């Protein structure tokens, strides 16, 4: 599984403080800790509280790339902030993210082409988030079609079936799993599947347990990638164990040592 570390996000109070105070050591340490624990890429989001998000994104990306060259997922809804982040990435970046609306795709796919970036496409439209798998799949098809029409490599496309908090939208958890299964049948090769895992447990009492359980279910359904907290060692153990039980990796008695790279 490809893991995108979620912790460099201005929505977290400690990260917001570090961005505001330009605390390079904190950000760099947090980047390296996530990679050490198994992250293959890092999500980068300046949050909503910064006065100048464009310059904040430039500082954040430059700060991270001073100590690592892993891929960065530039996470913003603002086009100018997105391009500023992409501009300073050293490795192949990921655009996080676009809805299925044509206007958004028309704005972001050219950026993906310009910066040789992958794209995360959300099964969301102007009407909101569909409640069922079939409607989510229709949006996934729209994203895939637009991506291919622009001559983009399908292996650079991630489709996010958009998990909502189980506390407020319990029924959609199974719909997301079915969407993941169906996305794998859309083409050959299929687009990659991705989830922002922590969303499923927002507002709940047992966040880590819910995250771990749903992650195992999603991997079984065909999930390729997750944006999650790699510092949660129990969560990382679920990934390693699931991949063994699905015969994706070879069992050995010391396999859990991979959780503490």
Mean pLDDT: 96
Record the strand order, biggest sheet: 1-2-3-4-5-6-7-8
Radius of gyration from CA coordinates: 18 Å
CATH architectural designation of the largest domain: Alpha-Beta Barrel
Summed up, the domain count is: 2
What descriptive keywords fit this protein?
single chain; 2 domains; 9 helices; 261 residues; globular; alpha/beta; TIM Barrel; eight-stranded parallel barrel
Describe the protein's topology.
Layout: E1 2-5, H1 13-21, H2 24-36, E2 41-44, H3 53-65, E3 71-75, H4 79-87, E4 94-98, H5 102-114, E5 118-122, H6 133-149, E6 157-160, H7 172-183, E7 192-196, H8 207-221, E8 225-228, H9 233-245
Parallel strand pairs: 1-2, 1-8, 2-3, 3-4, 4-5, 5-6, 6-7, 7-8
Helix pairs in contact: 3-4, 6-7, 8-9
Describe this structure in words.
This protein has helices at 13-21, 24-36, 53-65, 79-87, 102-114, 133-149, 172-183, 207-221, 233-245; strands at 2-5, 41-44, 71-75, 94-98, 118-122, 157-160, 192-196, 225-228. The chain is α/β, with parallel strands linked by helices and 261 residues long. Helix 3 packs parallel to helix 4 (79-87). The chain is globular.
Tell me briefly what this model is.
The model has no long low-confidence stretch (mean pLDDT 96). With 261 residues, the chain is an alpha/beta fold.
